[in-house]
């Protein structure tokens, strides 16, 4: 889901950039007011879509972090259980030699599970770092988009003023 959200965000940003270029080209060619308003509406819609995608990405990242915490807690409980089982095995080793072989096998299984759990925890920590970096990248992209949007709004305002000045002059 996170990858899909990132892909959707990237597609929306690409579409937004293309529409921004088209808007600039049309502004340079003195776009009619109706087209200008359509471009503004499209820009607002794309900004809303971008915001929704960013919020979705943030929610998915938070959900993934919560799942990671739950998984780490489960692995800690498994580790605790493995340690307790190892202590029980040591006690059983002192009690009888016949139990020795059975308990030693259980201990090896528990240690193998512990190793797998530790590896999984490390992998999950790595994923958490990657998610954090992806979130930072998304935030940087959002900031860049906001700056570009601000610039476009300023250009649109300047164009409106220019049109306002040109229209009375051309009518007279």
Question: In this structure, how is the largest beta sheet organized?
Answer: none
* Helix share, percent: over 70%
Which blocks of ≥5 consecutive residues have pLDDT under 50? none
**Outline:** rod-shaped
What structural class do you assign from the helix and strand content?
A: mainly alpha
Radius of gyration: 30 Å
Terminal residue distance = 59 Å
What's the layout of helices and strands?
Layout: H1 2-28, H2 33-95, H3 97-171
Task: Describe the 3D structure.
With 172 residues, the protein is mainly α. The protein has a domain at 66-159. 96% of the residues lie in helices and 0% in strands. The protein is rod-shaped, with a radius of gyration of 30 Å. It starts with a helix and ends with a helix. The mean pLDDT is 88. Residues 36-165 form a coiled coil.
What features would you highlight for this structure?
mainly alpha, phosphoprotein, cytoskeleton, coiled coil, NINL protein, 172 residues, cytoplasm
């Amino acid at each position: 889901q996170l990858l899909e959200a990132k892909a959707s965000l990237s597609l929306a940003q690409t579409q937004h950039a293309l529409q921004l270029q088209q808007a600039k080209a049309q502004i340079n060619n003195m776009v009619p007011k109706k087209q200008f308003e359509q471009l503004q509406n499209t820009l607002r819609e794309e900004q809303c879509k971008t915001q929704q995608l960013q919020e979705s990405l943030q929610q998915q990242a938070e959900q993934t972090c919560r799942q990671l915490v739950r998984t780490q807690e489960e692995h800690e409980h498994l580790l605790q259980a493995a340690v307790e089982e190892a202590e029980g095995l040591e006690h059983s080793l002192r009690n009888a030699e016949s139990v020795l072989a059975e308990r030693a096998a259980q201990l090896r299984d528990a240690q193998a599970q512990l190793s797998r759990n530790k590896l999984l925890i490390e992998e999950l920590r790595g994923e958490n770092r990657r998610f954090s970096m992806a979130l930072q990248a998304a935030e940087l992209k959002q900031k860049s988009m906001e700056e570009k949007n601000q610039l476009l709004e300023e250009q649109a305002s300047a164009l409106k003023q220019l049109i306002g000045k040109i229209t009375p002059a051309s009518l007279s």
